[in-house]
C-alpha cells in the first residue's frame, strides 16, 4: 500500500516469484458420497457446483500436503530451501496443537534458515498470511518467504452430516514471495490488501470442540463436537456481502477500478457465491476463476491452489490485474490486488 507521506513509503515491496500446489491422490465423487449419506450428485451440483474433492491418505498430515506444494513453488521460483527465511502456514487443520505446522514444513523441506509460524483465520487464512509475510518483507527484516495455505479438512468432517460433509476437501497451495525494490515493476507484485473480522458471528461457522473451551471427553465424544458446524444460509449471505466490499476496498487502495480486473480468484466454497460476486463486480465468466467443481472447499488452500492453476493454465499473464478475495469462519475476510 502506498502512503501520501514520502517519509513513510516502504523501501521494499513484495512480489510473488513462484507458485505451487498439491492435491492428494484419492478422489471422492458426489456419487461416492451418496452411498454414505442421504444426498445426490444432483443436489450437490445444483446447490454448490462441487462434483468431486480430493481426500488425503491416513498417513498424510497437513504438513505433508504443505511441504509438497512448497517444493513445487520453490522449483517454480528457482530458489533453494536455504534461501527461505520465513515460512507462514495458514491452516485450521494443523498437524497438532503445537509445534506449528510451519515448523514441520521447515523440517520436511530443509528450510534451515526460516522463522516459522502458523496463522488461524479459516478460509481467509492464506490472504492473512500473505499480508503478514508481506509486512516482514516490506520492512526489510526478511527477504524470501513461503506463504502456504494447507488443509486436511477431511479430518474435521462429520461423515454422517450431509449438511457439511459434501462441501469440503483436502489440498495445499503455496507461493514464494520476495522483497523487491519499491521502485521496480517486478511481476507478481502485491499492490494492496484489506482484511476484516467480526467475532460476534463466530458461532455461525466453527469446530466447537477439541480445544480448551470444550475438550473431548468420553461423555461428549458421540455428539462429534470436534467436527465442522455451519449455519449455511447465514454464512452464504455474509460471504457475498463481505467479499464484494473487500474487493472494492482493495481495488480502491490500489488506485484501480473493477474495469481493470483481468481475473478474480475468489475463495472456492460454492459456485453460487462466486457467481454472485462476479455479477456484483460486473465480471464475465472468463474473468472469474472457478475450480470448486474439482476440489470442493479446501479452506485456506483454495486461493493459492487456484492462483497456481490460473498461472499454469495461462489464464493470467504478466501485467494482469488479479483480484484475490476470501471469506471464512470468524468471520474473517480479506482481499488482495496483484499485478501479475
Ligand atoms: O468457506 C467458508 C464459507 N462457506 C460458505 O460460504 C458456505 C455457505 N453456504 C452454502 O454454501 C450453502 O448454504 C450450502 C451449500 C451449505 C447449503 O445450501 P442451501 O441452498 O443454503 O441449503 P439449505 O442449507 O438451506 O438446505 C436446503 C435443504 C434442507 O432440506 P429442507 O429442510 O428444506 O427439507 C437440507 O436438509 O437441503 C437439505 N440438504 C441436503 N439435501 C441433500 C442439506 N444438505 C443436503 C445434501 N443433500 N448434502
List keywords for this structure.
25% strand, 5-stranded mixed sheet, alpha/beta, 4-stranded mixed sheet, 340 residues, binds oxa(dethia)-CoA, 13 strands, 2 domains, globular, Peroxisomal Thiolase, Chain A, domain 1, 10 helices, single chain
Structural overview:
With 340 residues, the protein is α/β, with parallel strands linked by helices. It folds into two domains: 6-179, Peroxisomal Thiolase, Chain A, domain 1 (3-Layer(aba) Sandwich), CATH 3.40.47; 189-339, Thiolase/Chalcone synthase (Peroxisomal Thiolase, Chain A, domain 1, 3-Layer(aba) Sandwich). Helix content is 31%, strand content 25%. It contains ten helices and 13 strands. The strands form four sheets. It has a five-stranded mixed beta sheet, with helices on both faces. Helix 7 (232-253) packs parallel to helix 8. The longest helix is centred in the last third of the chain and has 22 residues, at 232-253. The chain is globular. The model has no long low-confidence stretch (mean pLDDT 95). The structure holds oxa(dethia)-CoA. Residues 39, 43-44, 47-48, 123, 162-163, 166, 232-233, 235-236, 239, 269-270, 273, 297, 327-328 line the site of oxa(dethia)-CoA (UT7).
CATH topology call of the largest domain: Peroxisomal Thiolase, Chain A, domain 1
The helix content, as a percent range, equals: 25-40%
| Number of distinct beta strands | 13
Proper CATH architecture of the largest domain: 3-Layer(aba) Sandwich
Largest sheet: 5 strands, mixed
Q: Approximately what portion of the residues adopt beta-strand conformation?
A: 25-35%
Structural class: alpha/beta
How many distinct domains? 2
Number of separate helices:
10
